[in-house]
Amino acid sequence: MQSDVTRAHYDRLADKYDENWAYSPEFIQWMTAAILNRLRLNQGDLAMDLGCGTGLYSRGLAEHANAVVCADPSPAMLEQLPADERLIPLHAGAEDLAEGRITPPHDGYDAILLKEVLHHVTDPPQVLTGLTRLLRPGGRILVVMLPTTIDYPLFGAALKLFQERQPDPASIAAAMEHSGLRAELTYDEFPLAFTVERYTRMVRNRYMSLLASFDDAELEAGISEIHRKHPGPEIRFPDRFAFVLGVKG
Description:
By secondary structure, the chain is of the alpha/beta class. It has helices at 4-13, 17-21, 25-39, 58-62, 75-78, 94-98, 124-132, 156-165, 169-178, 196-204, 216-229; strands spanning 46-50, 67-72, 87-91, 109-115, 135-145, 181-195, 234-248.
């Protein structure tokens, strides 16, 4: 279950979330297209963006679906959703819905998006099994996640902690198959470039949830390490994602 610490982290981050994650209009457009190309929404579809945050990707889903349920365990995040009748806020986490503690507003969904959500849950296979029950025939679940190793210019302790915590996309695909879905795993990447000043500001804001595991002194030491490794004015690296698509037969 998403811990109180993680929920508090996202509540604190809410007003800076778009600044930290919307790297550029090009990145948002690229990620939205990557999601839509896989989910293949139709205008009559009901979709759910589970772990929607401020709705960065819910907006793109809503342009191609009848309605999008925007589910998130952080009330502060949901307060940032744009005013759009097609976006239906729901205060719920993945486990709440998978285990039936909270009932969504529709009988079934044609598409469920989980972007960088499953590393927050205790038992991803169990969550996927529960969410599969929310799908209509032919429905799709798309998990967007980072691979087990990343090229982010973080400090060593943060990269080590990431590798310890990050689920393997192949295991997520296997869990989908076990849940009765037809699974497909693909990868794609987008080139990122930041000034060192902006990237270190993002790290200081703890833009990734794993950075909440470091106190202020540890974070400042990590930022000093980043500056030593990247003495120039700019940092460039590929942002690589795994896309695990499950289709209900």
